[in-house]
């Protein structure tokens, strides 16, 4: 290999993304959430999306036990929410308004869009697992600009 882990991270960081909070709920009803920018669309017909979870995450067992997930797309004003759901110690759910739709995953109602998904396929991929989900219900809300992530930092669309 002609590159090391830092080079790889630096190259991946050049790809600007939005920011999501992925959520799920355990059989006992406990919610779990994580900030993720690995979200991607997969298929229009049927409607499929994916995200990738680090197997080393403290939250891995809880997400992996679920048969569903929800994708919540963050707005430019939600950097604090992104940090909260990326944190090791902080439980952001008590201060976050949520609804439940088809799957039981917490839907963050104050976000740009939410997609409630049933897991169709899990792909074991190196140190991550890729979850591909079928979208059962969705909602898009208003015209707020998105929160962006680029080169390890949050960003905003200029003028938006
Ligand atoms: C902008 C951003 C995007 C992230 N995207 C992902 C992701 O796609 N998948 C993932 O497993 N972790 C991702 N993380 C890391 C998690 O949000 C979280 O910080 C990490 O899993 C913390 O470790 P823990 O789960 O062991 O508490 C991202 C963090 C940030 C700030």
Automatic annotation (TrEMBL):
Domain Flavin reductase like: 12-156
Name of the protein in its database record: Flavin reductase family protein
Entries under InterPro entries matching the protein: Flavin_Rdtase-like_dom (IPR002563), NADH-dep_flavin_reductase (IPR050268), Split_barrel_FMN-bd (IPR012349)
UniProt family annotation: Belongs to the non-flavoprotein flavin reductase family.
GO MF annotation terms: FMN binding; riboflavin reductase (NADPH) activity
Species annotation: Futiania mangrovi
Keywords: Oxidoreductase
Source organism phylogeny: Bacteria, Pseudomonadati, Pseudomonadota, Alphaproteobacteria, Futianiales
């Amino acid at each position: 290999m002609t590159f090391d882990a830092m080079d790889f991270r630096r190259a991946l960081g050049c790809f600007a993304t939005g920011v999501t909070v992925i959520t799920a709920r355990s059989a006992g009803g406990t919610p779990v959430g994580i900030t993720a920018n690995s979200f991607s669309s997969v298929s229009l017909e049927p409607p499929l999306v994916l995200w990738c979870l680090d197997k080393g995450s403290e939250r891995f067992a809880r997400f992996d036990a679920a048969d569903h997930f929800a994708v919540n797309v963050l707005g430019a004003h939600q950097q604090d929410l992104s940090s909260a759901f990326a944190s090791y110690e902080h439980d952001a759910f008590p201060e976050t308004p949520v609804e439940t739709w088809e799957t039981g995953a917490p839907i963050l109602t104050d976000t740009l869009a939410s997609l409630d998904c049933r897991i169709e396929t899990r792909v074991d991929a190196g140190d991550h697992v890729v979850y591909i989900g079928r979208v059962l219900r969705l909602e898009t809300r208003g015209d707020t600009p998105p929160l962006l992530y680029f080169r390890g930092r949050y960003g905003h669309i200029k003028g938006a």
